[in-house]
Design goal:
The relative contact order is 0.17. The protein contains four helices and three strands. The model is unreliable at 115-121 (pLDDT under 50). Strand 2 (54-60) and strand 3 form a beta hairpin. The chain starts with a helix and ends in an 18-residue tail after the last helix. Helix 2 (38-49) packs across helix 3 (77-87). It is 42% helix and 17% strand. It has 121 residues and is α+β, with helices and mostly antiparallel strands. Bound molecules: copper (II) ion.
């Protein structure tokens, strides 16, 4: 009898600590960027991948959407968006950091050098 009470107590403690883990679990955010090409993809994924709390960062060039998996509590969508702007790209409603954007190769700047969306062949 005593043992089964202990087991129940253990199970309860286990359930609570699992809930605690879940709260610091991985979350996902999708950020619309102004990426133009595969170079942008690599640049953004590398920079955001190195941000604190980020597990994975994957950019879909076609939709320009960056999907970030991050640890809740270590970082947040606002910090991640701001990190994207510092790489030189728009992040949802946040405009790109101008200095960073102007340092990008022409083809990676907003709209590319001819003002049209294009992709490198
Ligand atoms: Cu580019």
């Amino acid at each position: 009898m005593k043992i089964s009470i202990w087991l129940m107590a253990l199970a309860l403690v286990g359930a609570f600590s699992l809930r605690g883990l879940a709260q610091t679990d991985v979350k996902e955010v999708k950020i619309k960027t102004s990426a133009q090409c595969d170079m942008c993809k690599k640049r953004i994924e590398k920079a955001i991948g190195l941000e604190k709390g980020v597990k994975t960062a994957v950019l879909d060039v076609k939709s320009k959407v960056l999907t970030v998996q991050y640890r809740d509590g270590k970082t947040n969508p606002e910090a991640l968006r701001s990190a994207v702007t510092k790489v030189g790209y728009d992040a949802d409603v946040l405009p790109a950091d101008k200095k960073a954007h102007d340092r990008l190769p022409d083809c990676c700047q907003k709209g590319g050098h001819d003002g049209k969306d294009h992709n490198h062949k």
